[in-house]
Design a protein that fits this description.
The complex is a heterodimer of chains A (about 220) and B (about 210). Chain A is α+β, with helices and mostly antiparallel strands and about 220 residues long. Helix content of chain A is about 30%, strand content about 15%. Chain A has a five-stranded antiparallel beta sheet. In chain A, α1 (about 30-40) runs parallel beside α4 (about 70-80) and α2 crosses α4. Chain B is mainly α. Chain B has helices at about 10-35, 40-55, 55-70, 70-80, 80-85, 120-125, 130, 135-140, 145-150, 185-190, 195-200, and strands at about 95-100, 105-110, 160-165, 170-175. Chain B has a two-stranded parallel sheet. Chain B has a two-stranded parallel sheet with strand order 2-3. The chains are: A alpha+beta (about 220), B mainly alpha (about 210). The interface between A and B is large, with 94 and 82 residues. β4 of chain A pairs parallel with β3 of chain B.
Chain lengths: ~220, ~210
């Protein structure tokens, strides 16, 4: 969806302000939000693409004014309700009012201490890859109303396939519960001029990682 | 998401905003725990991992080895996940780590314009600036001006390559080895490798920037 999360190329946000010796968390509640999010993901309550899509659907003014972990907390509350894990009256009451839904598994401290593995996103290919390294491709000019990982600034642009990363689950369908729909994934590189026209920095190149359905032969 | 009470001064307002968030988060944890979805001890362990174990020092060792061992460097650039795992650190790196090499001709920078994708397993949690609108909006359009915000200026003829992390591939930059470090041990070299140099918003430190350099 074309919302404010898709920030590439927007003007007006000001300088980047690095913080010297930044701590992992600025407030203890931030760590709790992170931990809850990861625990629910491990339990199979949702996938990372659901999390992203939920945040994208926050009203733009909320997205822009909330901090990173405030966004997570707000997104998690909405997702818990939407997916039937918590009811609105429970959020209002601040306590559980009825038994929980069964989940695949429960994250324990032992599992975390052994090293919480990031899941693999590889999936078995459903067909041969359409493109190979060196091919010229054009990104499609698409504007789905749901989750996509093709940024607006890189739509309808001609680039070159630089890497092929195997076949991955497809965020656009995972986020809306339409299945993994495995797709080939490529790094596609563009010149600065292709993306930004004559204003583009001629010394820069930009790449995105693009799933095959985002691409057509150029 | 916070309501602002304009009768209050800024400091007080900020304080009540935080406590509203704190209360919401505490309520959420109570509910999820009571429903049996989460174990608060696992949440503690996650926080502890990011506060004490998982951080840029993990890849700093990888970079130092790549600077010291050409065969390892080649393996790292061919398959980042496999090469990092071969160093035997305990945290899992996942399947999709890609290392990209800085050279005098090309400087790499990593961003996620759509959210804040970042190689958590090897760099720890992303800094606030990485997740901020200025970094996410400007890096793909004016990388040199973003580098200037970090005090980094590169020659005009250096190509700047920006990697937008739009899928589950995770990128780490292999910075250039600083001059004057010939014969250094991997341990000494690792002390030169900063988090920002592995995101591409900084360079590795020079020997005179570290104690006993």
């Amino acid at each position: 969806m074309d919302s404010v999360h898709d920030m590439g190329g927007m003007d007006g946000f000001g300088k980047v302000e690095p913080e010297p010796n930044e701590p992992p968390f600025h407030e203890p509640w931030e760590g709790r939000v992170l931990g809850m999010q990861r625990a629910m993901g491990y339990a199979g309550a949702w996938h990372t693409d659901h999390t992203r899509y939920q945040q994208e659907r926050l009203p733009p003014h909320v997205y822009l004014s909330a901090s990173y972990y405030q966004r997570w907390a707000a997104g998690m509350e909405r997702m818990l309700v939407e997916r039937g894990f918590v009811d609105p009256d429970e959020l209002a009451a601040g306590k559980s009012l009825r038994p929980g839904k069964p989940l695949k598994r429960k994250l324990t401290a032992d599992v975390v201490k052994a090293g919480l593995a990031r899941g693999s996103f590889f999936r078995d290919p459903q067909g041969p890859a359409l493109f190979k390294v060196g091919d010229r491709v054009r990104t499609k000019n698409i504007h789905p109303k749901t989750h996509t990982r093709l940024p607006r600034y890189a739509r309808g642009k001609v680039g070159v396939i630089e890497m092929q990363h195997g076949c991955h689950m497809f965020p656009d369908t995972v986020a809306i519960d339409k299945g993994d729909c495995p797709q080939w994934l490529y790094t596609v590189v563009f010149t600065g001029e292709e993306i930004w026209g004559p204003d583009g920095d001629p010394s820069m190149k930009i790449s995105i990682d693009a799933f095959e359905p985002y691409l057509e032969r150029a | 998401m916070a309501s602002h009470d304009h009768d209050h001064d800024h400091h007080h307002d900020h304080g009540s905003e935080l406590s509203e968030t704190q209360l919401r988060v505490r309520a959420l944890e109570t509910i999820l725990t009571e429903k049996g979805y989460i174990d608060p001890a696992a949440v503690d362990a996650i926080i502890e991992a990011y506060e004490t174990r998982v951080g840029p020092h993990i890849v700093a060792r990888v970079v130092a080895r790549a600077w010291s061992d050409p065969a390892f460097k080649k393996a790292l650039l061919e398959d980042g996940s496999k090469a990092v795992l071969s160093m035997g650190h305990t945290n899992k790196v996942g399947d999709h780590l890609v290392a990209i090499e800085n050279t005098p001709q090309r400087h790499n920078m990593v961003v996620c314009t759509l959210c804040s994708c970042y190689p958590w397993e090897v760099l720890g949690l992303p800094p606030v600036w990485y997740k901020s609108a200025p970094y996410r909006s400007r890096t793909v359009k004016e990388p040199r001006s973003v580098l200037a915000d970090f005090g980094v200026k590169l020659p005009r003829d250096t190509e700047i390559r920006v990697w937008d992390s739009t899928a589950e591939t995770r990128f780490i930059v292999l910075p250039m080895r600083p001059a004057g470090t010939e014969g250094w041990s991997e341990e000494r070299l690792a002390a030169l490798v900063t988090r920002d140099s592995m995101i591409g918003t900084g360079l590795a430190k020079n020997p005179n920037e570290v104690a006993n350099g």
